[in-house]
Design a protein that fits this description.
Structural class: alpha/beta
Shape: globular
Strand content: 5-15%
Distance between the termini: 65 Å
């Protein structure tokens, strides 16, 4: 139009001709603009059609078909506005994820890892069928849109969402703790009837069943994220420093679902929380070594309040063997011993559910698998359906589940399948899990990492304890075990028969295994098909410093214990440098850690009759702790 106006100004007395020229130009410009708009609209519609039918590598808007959003990342140490991000995968766990979750660019390739194993040959060692059906099971979960979907918010990223989803190599750096480094989770605003979510109850009334609504964690900000995408995604790991940061943030930002109506027990817990946060400062305490704890003062006050206040109601519904009984030997013994000792306990258990602060679902996930899983079926639908039916019974008969959506209920599960089996129906519950994997749904502030010993004698869980003093341990590092998972073959490739100080091998006899555990300085706790391994607790039992070689594994009782004071953490990528890492630890530091391993051992022991601060009480305390710090005023 600018050219046309100039031409009219320069027309020497011929206004009619110039006017016609302007009109023709104006019409031509109009039609060209209209054609351009039609072209843009056509391209837009084509992209929408391609997106709808799920063609790969095309992402314009969010979809619920297994995509993952990555909008931000941890920053590196650079403060410049144009600083390069050295890593941009953030971990988070989401509860009760449905198709209402918002996701963005980048289709994620989902992959389940497999089941962990025992130390040596044992009747309770995980069978090969455990590892064979994981991929099938996860694919079913993906199809039903029940996998967690997460957003991480931050500044700019040097990698696009598509690069992240398709496996660019990156590692999360230690975060700068700033307001920009806060994780937020996208949550549905309403209950989704299409996905079986019912209407909320506002007050107690006639007994009805209302399936749990999507989790309303409106104050959840710094919870780690959780989807395993590909082999390369294994390089996106949270270091022990970053896990400490995530835990710290969860204490101030995580809240469980708001109760639908108020209860006296909520006020009791809120008062307990205030007392714990304002605990008097302790420099030392008989029987408790301060360096072993994150905060000895808060732990002591919290434990005392638990002993004084806590009441647990155990549901009587259901029949054995799946409910009310569990294994007392082998690598799944923790869930059985906890169940047995809690059922026998008179201090914490109440017969009146109205007085309960917590509700225990007495399920043995090991016996659930043994009883209901059809060998070689590659299908766990019937196991999950059993859990659905059990919760339905509880919700129909009692109003407690409906009041909190299950947030004041808890499970204790040793079997590796428990996280995946409970991600939907029990996602609001506090879950004490051996398979405490940041990529598998473990959530700081809610879930608890369950200690996993290998109990060799049911009648005496303290058998075989002990080992040589620090000065007489001649072997630098020891590992022996089955070749489950991707990591152990790598460990053997680098260190089997390579150095006399490094006793690294496959399976050996039980006697040899125990001998080396009791005479080595460091015991390598390498992950199997899952992140957890009974070697972590076994090392402590035998006075050997645990070397945790399992990325994204949350160590047991992590919210309470200071693991860096008595254990070594090595990233999987550093296996080639393992010997140098261990040799770099000064002898004085080694002896100090060995002394602390012996001190912390008491926190991991199962007693036929529970004693103060033993593993039964420590597990119960961690569950109590997460309930107290996760509760929201009604």
């Amino acid at each position: 139009m600018l050219v046309l106006n100039l031409e009219l100004q320069n027309c020497p007395g011929n206004g009619v001709i110039c006017s016609n020229m302007g009109t023709e130009f104006r019409y031509a410009s109009f039609f060209e603009t209209k054609r351009l708009l039609w072209l843009v609209a056509s391209v837009f519609v084509m992209v929408l059609i391609i997106q709808y039918f799920g063609f790969p590598n095309v992402a314009l808007f969010s979809s619920s078909k297994g995509q993952v959003a990555f909008i931000g990342s941890f920053q590196s140490g650079e403060s410049s506005g144009n600083s390069i991000m050295s890593g941009n995968l953030t971990f988070a766990s989401v509860l009760n994820t449905t198709a209402t979750n918002v996701v963005h660019e980048g289709t994620a390739k989902i992959e389940l890892s497999k089941t962990s194993d025992g130390t040596v040959k044992d009747s309770n060692v995980t069978t090969s069928e455990d590892t064979e059906i994981e991929d099938k099971f996860l694919s079913q979960a993906v199809e039903s849109n029940k996998l967690p979907v997460v957003e991480s918010l931050g500044k700019t990223s040097s990698l696009s969402p598509l690069q992240v989803a398709h496996g660019s190599e990156f590692i999360i750096p230690t975060p700068n703790v700033t307001s920009e480094n806060i994780f937020l989770l996208d949550k549905p605003d309403k209950y989704d009837i299409a996905h079986g979510v019912g209407k909320a109850i506002e007050k107690p009334g006639p007994v009805q069943i209302y399936p749990a609504p999507p989790t309303d964690h409106s104050c959840m900000k710094n919870i780690p994220v959780v989807i395993e995408r590909s082999d390369r995604a294994r390089k996106s790991v949270a270091s022990i420093t970053q896990m400490n940061y995530m835990l710290q943030q969860s204490r101030t930002s995580f809240c469980s679902m708001k109760p639908r109506w108020s209860s006296v027990v909520d006020q009791v817990l809120l008062r307990a929380k205030a007392l714990i946060e304002n605990a008097p400062l302790l420099q030392s305490e008989p029987g408790l070594s301060a360096p072993l704890f994150r905060n000895l003062s808060m732990f002591k006050r919290s434990y005392e309040l638990m002993e004084k206040i806590l009441k647990v109601y155990i549901y009587a519904e259901g029949e054995r063997p799946i409910l009310h009984s569990g294994p007392l030997g082998g690598i799944y013994a923790s869930e059985g011993w906890f169940m047995k000792l809690l059922q026998e306990n008179k201090r914490f258990v109440t017969k009146n559910p109205e007085k309960a602060h917590l509700f225990y679902l007495p399920i043995s996930f090991r016996k659930l698998k043994v009883t209901l899983y059809v060998p070689d079926s590659h299908n766990r639908t019937n196991l999950i359906q059993f859990l659905h039916n059990y919760v339905d019974i509880i919700a129909q008969k009692y109003h407690f589940w409906n009041r909190t959506g299950g947030a004041d209920h808890f499970i204790v599960a040793s079997h590796d399948w428990a996280p995946a089996a409970t991600n939907e129906i029990m996602s609001n519950c506090i879950r004490s899990l051996c398979n405490a994997d940041l990529r598998g749904g473990f959530q700081f502030g809610k879930d608890v990492s369950l200690p996993q010993p290998n109990i060799r004698l049911e009648t005496n869980p303290l058998a075989e304890l002990g080992g040589k003093p620090a000065s007489k341990r001649r072997t630098l590092a020891f590992f022996a075990g089955h070749m489950h998972g991707y990591l152990r073959p790598i460990l053997l490739k680098y260190w089997e028969n390579k150095d006399p100080d490094m006793r690294i091998s496959g399976e050996i006899t039980t006697a040899s295994y125990l001998r080396y555990m009791k005479s080595s300085k460091y015991c390598i706790c390498a992950r199997g098909s899952q992140v957890n391994s009974p070697r972590v607790v076994e090392s402590i039992y035998y006075g050997c410093i645990p070397v945790i070689l399992s990325d994204n594994y949350v160590p047991p009782l992590f919210e309470t214990l200071n693991w860096e004071s008595f254990a070594v953490f090595v990233l999987e990528k550093d296996i080639p440098n393992l010997r140098n890492i261990l040799l770099s630890i000064p002898d004085k530091k080694y002896k100090q850690m060995h002394r602390r391993v012996k001190q912390v051992q008491q926190r991991f022991l199962w007693h036929i009759k529970p004693s103060k601060y033993d593993v039964f009480h420590m597990i119960l305390h961690s569950i109590w702790h997460n309930r107290v710090f996760g509760i929201r005023p009604s």
